[in-house]
UniProtKB/TrEMBL annotation:
Signal peptide: none annotated. Residues 24-272 form the EAL domain. The chain holds residues 691 to 962 of 962 of the full protein. This is GGDEF domain-containing protein.
Amino acid sequence: LAKGRGRARYEVFDDDLRYRIHQRLDTELALRDAVAQGEIETWYQPIVDLQENRVVATEALARWRRPERGLISPAEFIAIAEEVGLIKGIGATVLSQACHAATALERNVAVSVNVSARQFVQDDFGAVVKRALRESGLAPDQLWLELTESAVLEAIDSAARTFQELRAIGVRLAIDDFGTGYSSFTHLREFTVDLLKIDLSFIRDLERSEHDRAIVEGILRLADSLNLDVVAEGIETTNQRDLLQAMGCRYGQGYLFSKPTPSASPAVVFAT
Ligand code: C2E
Ligand code: MG
Ligand code: MG
Ligand code: MG
């Protein structure tokens, strides 16, 4: 009896695994044509100045309009694109769309583009960025690049020069999801950046968690002494915004102000 049950369980597992492998291959195959078919879209979510209630930038967020499946979120395809070597093309597409869209913004509003490690460890990453700027006519100081801590770690050796080159022409560098990676503080010493984006996991429970408030305050103090600007991600409530404002956090982003939308200049709600 035990043996029979074991086999049945094994078959269920087997079917499930087979299904998932099939799904994965199917996604990979479809993703290979996505750029050429024009299926990669860029959506935008504003970053606001919490002290002055104005939009300072808008973050470009990739979306895949997959035929017969609808709009696919980056969580479902960016990691796959990185693994199978498609992130270069997708990343360059988003960068180009974002730079073009940003030329319609006011001169003091930037566009912030997510860049994965696989993208910028390539030799020509600097050239890709400069081409996107040249072809769109966007001013370099209207472009921010967001890198995660783990990506920065990979880049310290191979991409440090590229980043210095980009910073020299005015592009600003941000560390995304700050606080979730390893040894966050070492990176700041070895790698010059302009902005920290505090991961939304520290903002979610800000009202209830003294612990999270202490971490955010620590990050703000550190950023202040290193002369870095800070963006708090994932602000959903006026309470969270008020707390961050009171702590002296300059910038914020989240559903409270606007969800990502297809327009680079969405309506922003500065609720009171
Ligand atoms: P991220 O760069 O940290 O972007 C923030 C994510 O949080 C976005 O999800 C955004 O829609 C979501 N978000 C914004 N405000 C709130 C809020 O108030 N509450 C909650 N719960 N979530 C909020 P999205 O668009 O699904 O993107 C997920 C991740 O995919 C991004 O995280 C980024 O790491 C990656 N990604 C997106 N576009 C690109 C891209 O063009 N290139 C690369 N390499 N990665 C990308
Ligand atoms: Mg980001
Ligand atoms: Mg983030
Ligand atoms: Mg994130």
